[in-house]
């Protein structure tokens, strides 16, 4: 059988810096765990614009459709801020998500004990936190028609439309139930069924899909209450399933419970391909961080944890994903810190490469 294929799109700013550390980890899994990947690399974002005049070429898009998983670093930067909207670096990312039809966005919020002090919440509320938000990514109010700004009775009116078909709700719900089955079998669906018809349909469809996952404990919550509960007692949740708009807000809120942007991975999954693997793209939540790019200051952990998600959700290597996550937990517990993780007590931060070194050493020690 051929090796699983990976397309690396490192992008701009700190993207290539953090991705270099992921490449070392991939090599480690080949050398030490006999897990080999066919890795190819290409350009996205500003880097693609500089070479080809577009943030993603058709050839790169076609490659992304063929591989088992895409790993993306970050796109954007001040050099591209004044470009026309159609060729801005972010358009490359949006094209990938749209054409791969990545409808389920997975945003874990996990608090490593060693970093619990970084949260804006009390340590005991976040220590050991491990929740997963599944956000519907391709529909809802960001895409619904009609939309726009027009004049009515001499006044400007802004319109966006929340629109969901039952098929859209259902496919995301299945992804969320599957996720719950791989975790603690608890799913909380969030909408505003009290004031929105699309919320009523959402609740009905999720309840119908539940019939296929009787082992999962399903609850429903209004999204505004969900926001309150996330900051009051986040550990009550395992998997949360919600729409594009609420998910945008709730996932950022949940993620920040855990501290630095440099620690947050994500995955976006689509429908299964012929080989049974879902279309998938894995990327850190952070951007290209122009303020620190080129200085070896970036924390590579978000990008490395994104690769751990690829191991778990694309390649069915849950144990190896856990090995990698435990290695990261270990180095943090031992005090390894990049600049973004330095507390008031100070100290000398590790460079991006040094953080890669200690994680590789912890992986070696795990054998
Ligand atoms: P950002 O995430 O790039 O940076 C925000 C802050 O967090 C900065 O101070 C940065 O130094 C810090 N930071 C981010 N990642 C870090 C890491 N791994 N290690 C240490 N510190 C880290 O967001 P921004 O500054 O608002 O945006 C910069 C550029 O990135 C913009 O062009 C924006 O459009 C783009 N962007 C891209 C993505 C993406 O590629 N998915 C996401 C967000 C922003």
Task: Describe this entry's structure for a reader.
By secondary structure, this protein is of the alpha/beta class. It has a domain at 1-109 and 262-367: Isopropylmalate Dehydrogenase, CATH 3.40.718. Helix content is 40%, strand content 22%. It has twelve helices and twelve strands. It has helices at residues 15-33, 46-52, 58-66, 89-99, 123-126, 166-182, 197-210, 223-232, 244-256, 301-313, 318-333, 352-365; strands spanning 5-11, 38-42, 69-74, 104-110, 130-136, 144-152, 155-161, 186-191, 217-222, 239-242, 265-272, 278-284. Strands 2-1-3-12-11-4-5-10-8-9 form a ten-stranded mixed beta sheet, sandwiched between helices. Strands 6-7 form a two-stranded antiparallel sheet. α1 runs parallel beside α12.
Nutshell version of this structure?
The chain has 367 residues and is an alpha/beta fold. Helices cover 40% and strands 22% of the residues.
Tags for this entry?
367 residues, alpha/beta, Isopropylmalate Dehydrogenase, 10-stranded mixed β-sheet, two-stranded antiparallel ribbon, 40% helix, binds nicotinamide-adenine-dinucleotide
Number of strands: 12
The CATH first-level class of the domain at 1-109 and 262-367 comes to Alpha Beta
Q: CATH homologous superfamily of the domain at 1-109 and 262-367 - what is it? A: Isopropylmalate Dehydrogenase
Bound molecules: nicotinamide-adenine-dinucleotide
User: What CATH architecture of the domain at 1-109 and 262-367 do you see?
Assistant: 3-Layer(aba) Sandwich
User: Structural class given helices, strands, pairing?
Assistant: alpha/beta
Order of strands across the biggest sheet?
A: 2-1-3-12-11-4-5-10-8-9
Shape: globular
Order of helices and strands: EHEHHEHEHEEEHEHEHEHEEHHH
Q: What is the rounded Rg? A: 21 Å
What's the oligomerization state?
A: single chain
Low-pLDDT ranges: none
Distance between the termini: 26 Å
> What fold name goes in the CATH topology slot of the domain at 1-109 and 262-367?
Isopropylmalate Dehydrogenase
What's the mean pLDDT score?
Answer: 95
Query: Helical percent range?
Result: 40-55%
Number of helices: 12
